[in-house]
Batch of 2 targets.
Target 1
Amino acid sequence: MPPGPDWLVLASAVLSIFVVSRVLKFIAGIKSRGSRAHEYHFLPSAFLALPFPTSWWNPGVAWVWKWRRSFYKQWRSEVVSFVPFLRGPPFIYTCSLEVARQFLSGGFQSVWVKPKWSVETLLEWGPNLVSVNKEVWRRHRRIVGPAFNPTTYSLVWAETLRVYRDIITTEGWTQKDVVILDPVQTYTTRLAFLVISACGFGLSFPWKDETKSDNGGMGIHEAMRIWASTVTLRAITPSWAYRLPFKLFRDITISTQMLRDSLGKMILERRAEMNSETTASNVEKKDIFTLLVRASEEDSKLQLSDSELVSENITTLGNVFALMFAGHETTASTIAATIGLLGLYSEIQEDIYKKIIKAVGHDRDPTFEDFHQLEAVAHAFYEALRLFPAGYIMIREATEDTTISIPNADGQPGMRQIPIPKDLPMVVDVVGIQYNPRYFPDPEKYDPSRWRGVMAESEDITAFSIGPRTCPGRKFAVVEAVCFLTLIVRDWIIEPIMNPGETGEEWRERVMQTHTAVTLTVKHFPVRLRRRARAAPPV
Ligand code: HEM
């Protein structure tokens, strides 16, 4: 009988070929990376790396947060490469603002663009400002930009105030001296959702709303709530998963269909209203959705094609949903973080309280006209955003081979040029920048006073990005935050709920940790609100 295959030898041969191929891939990665080597078996966002937590062999997606204190220090460089061993292209990460500026500051003609793979999941509703590049991006920005104006901000303020009043009545806070928000994020997420629904779509919902649709099925409110709360999940769920028999996936499918039908109808209605000279509501509606439909009706030069605003098959509301995506979780998490930090640092909270009373007093609701007098509240928000940047990475690649200047390693003065091949992903590590002591001395310290004298539009507030693609929703978010925080701090003392014997810093370390996925959010945590005695301390 002829001898059978020696399985051990065969397996060893296959393994050897695999190892050699991976080593060759790794060497190719190092050659192409154009920077210092930093070797890991998996890329942070490679498919295999995602399900695993951050560890020495797998940075995962959370390393920018977990290693924020040590990573760049350990590599003695502000520009570090991740070269994958198993799968995916090399990436370059930077915590240098000087480097970041080189690929964020160019206009629509710049060679630096958002890679297609990094924005694909945002195309669910059609092309939109967040996901397009070059000339098409310029067109979208010109359409969307004007929707962010003083009228929108005053609507944001009014809606935030309405939601706060609705919360205190519906939740019975008017009768309580102590309220537990457990977790804070339940409140801030719902707030952000209600504000963006009203200002984004003109759909103003009550704090508690169980309304069903006409046929008894899911109502538009519920559909939008499901959509908004599953943005991150949908971004990482493959389409086949929706066929699995899970309620959540079924709800997502139903809500998506519901939104397509309802919002499709809304577009037609708004267009009809606009074309009807007799409709008074045509003049009154000021939400972003109406402004976008109006812009597409009115300005033929800037007009989005129908496939961009309303496609034939699906109701494409790319930009309004992009605004919802970009503005909901980010704002909610940052307001929650500010509440947690103000609770922890009671002296800062008291200082802000005095300034609120000085600007607004006790006896009237704050108005949008008070916004500029409430800059101490804005500073508290900017500082929470510095410590917990919701947009924690920004990814770009060059459309052609190019070079960038990077700071010399080991803290040596001066810069040096390195080649960057086309398509190599460059990642601005916003956590790294905002914990970089070159820009923010004593970076772990929660110190809102560092923002004194910084203009609201300043690029020093890096968490909203810099250059032409800076966040158009920044004032939207800040106005909402300032209004809500003003109302909370004026009426209540915020307190952290600590374990027996726990110090403030231990609480912060235990509680104020993050989830990193599409955005960086603060993990759920509770706080206590204690009603204030009415008298204001002297300022
Ligand atoms: C605390 C809240 C927010 C933070 C931290 C934040 C952060 C950012 C960052 C870092 C970017 C740049 C991303 C990149 O270039 O890769 C961005 C872009 C964007 N943001 Fe925000 N954002 C916030 C709130 C909002 C709100 C409330 C809206 C809308 C209502 C919004 C709409 C957008 C849009 C449309 C873009 C894309 C702009 C473009 O590419 O031209 N954001 N945001």
Note: Residues 129-130, 141, 322-323, 326-327, 330-331, 334, 385, 390-391, 394, 463-465, 469, 471-473, 476-477 surround protoporphyrin IX containing FE (CB under 6 Å).
Target 2
Amino acid sequence: MTQTVRRTLGRPGAVSLKPYRKLLAPIGEREAALRELGDAELTEAALNLAGAEFPYERAELIELCAVVREAARRTLDERPFDVQLLGMMALLDGRVVEMATGEGKTLVGAMAAAGFALRDRRVHLLSVNDYLARRDAEWMRPLYDMLGVAPSWIAEDSTTIQRREAYAADVTYVSVSELGFDVLRDRLATDPGDLVVPDPDIALIDEADSVLVDEARVPLVLAGAAEAVEADADMAQLVRRLRPQVDYEVDSEGRNVQLTTTGIERVEAELGGVDLYSEEYADSLAQLNLALHAHALLKRDVHYVISDGEVKLIDESRGRVAMLQRWPDGLQAAVEAKEQLQASETGEILDSITVQALVLRYPTLCGMTGTAMAVAEPLREFYELEVAVIPPNLPCVRNDHATRLYATPEEKEDALVEQVLDIHEQGRPILIGTQDVAESERIAARLDKENLDCAVLNAKNDADEAAVIAEAGTYGAITVSTQMAGRGTDIRLGGSDMADRERVVAAGGLYVLGYGRYPSSRLDDQLRGRAGRQGDPGSSRFLVSIEDHLIASTMPEARQFDAASDGEITDPAWASAVDRAQRIAEGQLMELHRNTWRYSKLIDVQREVVLEHRAKVLHQDLGDEQVRSDCPERHADLVDEVGEDEVARAARLITLYHLDRGWTDHLAFLNQLREGIHLRMLGRRDPLDEFNADAVPVFKGFLDQARERAAQTFAEVSVTDGTIDVAAAGVKRPSSTWTYMVHDRPFGSDIDNIVGKARRLSRSSG
Ligand SMILES: Nc1ncnc2c1ncn2[C@@H]1O[C@H](COP(=O)(O)OP(=O)(O)OP(=O)(O)O)[C@@H](O)[C@H]1O
């Protein structure tokens, strides 16, 4: 198919770009006239478009695009390409825009955000981390200034006042986690003046596939002080002595571990002849399970690194340290015990929200990423979002070679070295993408042995990230990286100053070597996308061994193959097996997503009921109204003594306290229910039905109970120096709170495990 035909037809499943394309010519016609304007006049032209009507009329949209293009040319010295305008228009229409890596999405996002903001829409530009939030806001600030739009950014160390100010701006760049923590803290506010986050309007999401699909299930947590969870150090010792395959078995997906009969007998003997499955030893069994999970499923330098004496989790899809993330308390403590580290602070979960629920608060969503079509289905299913595929500005000339398959990991490694030697001799810079930290270190050591100098980028040395990436495109450079280099890194040919660009281009550009395929084709594509940016030459190739976890875990049984003398398998049936393995892995993740979503939906519905009620107490004195009607005499006496306002204040604090306390307890109950529900699986009942059957009636009395408790407390309060002493009546906020994200990926959450087990059970019985 020719380029032109493909352009007109677009991609199946994606929205048509035709309506946007029709506007490109008239937008271009405005260019000459706008160039004549002074800077102030251009700002005026932008403000002439301001108003409360949304969406833009056709003529207004043409003017908007033309003005924004001219402003970008003047302020950033970058004249937006036609394709960037297409991206901007699709975002304004609430689409997820797919634009290849390096096509300038930062600018596209800013142009669309300005377009929304001019029409009085409040935009939260959600980035994946604080660094990018700040960088992008500052980078794009001159453009916003010229358009009369105020941008701002928020970082982890922003104060409450700074946050409130930042959210008051037209466009706020904020990481998903900081936004989520602000929303959670607001949910505990006891004074309307303490609220930080305004009502949600538009979320424009960067790296949309990663946030909306990969991270959607991650809960953000607000915790409050409580006593520490102690992990059993002896248990950590005990599981260390257990033998894999003999005492315990790990399932093929690496998500579950179970003791064998031999293992159970051995543990029971070591614990002094106990019966692990008796009621009396339920705690020991729970501790044992956690220790075994920590021991058998969580690997140092794969799932976490140890730095500064702390366990730091590695983000599975990004390969970098996942700031603020921890496992659920018991497991976190078990890993700390395994590594003989001090147990970190633990607390009671005051409230939590998943990334998906956080994002779904916004009436309008849109986003951008290099890889959206591969997740078009979940985007539609969970968010009702459609994808717009924007073609590249210059055709991509990268040469993506077919995956090479080897029989053993050793042969795969030898093949890698051989290819590196070969490509390096041509002077081409090479980026090697590995699966985890340990592998990146092993490959670097091997290359070193072959006298090949290389730079390493992984979660252990992420401080050097900018410097390593800056030089990764230098003539003859070799860089070994985890998935860290896979997203958002701009590798410039010829080094940071691009001085040697011509020589690198002549040699063929950057060569990306993927050492093993990732569990999702999007991760492969993101890695490949480091080469061949903006029409640059480049190549990519993946090397795979049939013993790689991805392949081995999905292969039903050992299959025959013929391998060449270097171990390469060229049988086409095997090549398709690699693709199939990836599709199976992707399908499993999708299933996990769906299941967790079904559970969290019920919790979200209940949370909404509480929040709605809470808002009435906070803003409309509902608490006062209720205690007045529940304890009329006490209320009247107190009003006489301290006045209406003071009574209303106390009623508000007391009612909010009981609502929040009740919610924290209810959350703990729901968690317990989820964890315990597998016992019912023995009866072959649907765990979700079981969960709902218990969770729904318990919640029925929630608001009445909170009201009753508030009335009781109100009846008992005393007055000190003209104020109602609510603290003396037990109304206390947590002495300290902190935030984190729960990382439940390596083997799925408890729910996922249970669902997984249920599926296996039904398969074996069916
Ligand atoms: N219209 C333009 N003219 C010239 N340069 C541009 C233009 N738009 C963007 N760029 C440049 O292209 C480079 C890549 O931009 P950016 O980092 O926003 O890409 P990206 O699409 O976000 O890539 P990735 O998906 O890898 O994160 C930047 O150096 C930016 O300055």
Note: The chain is about 50% helix and 15% strand.
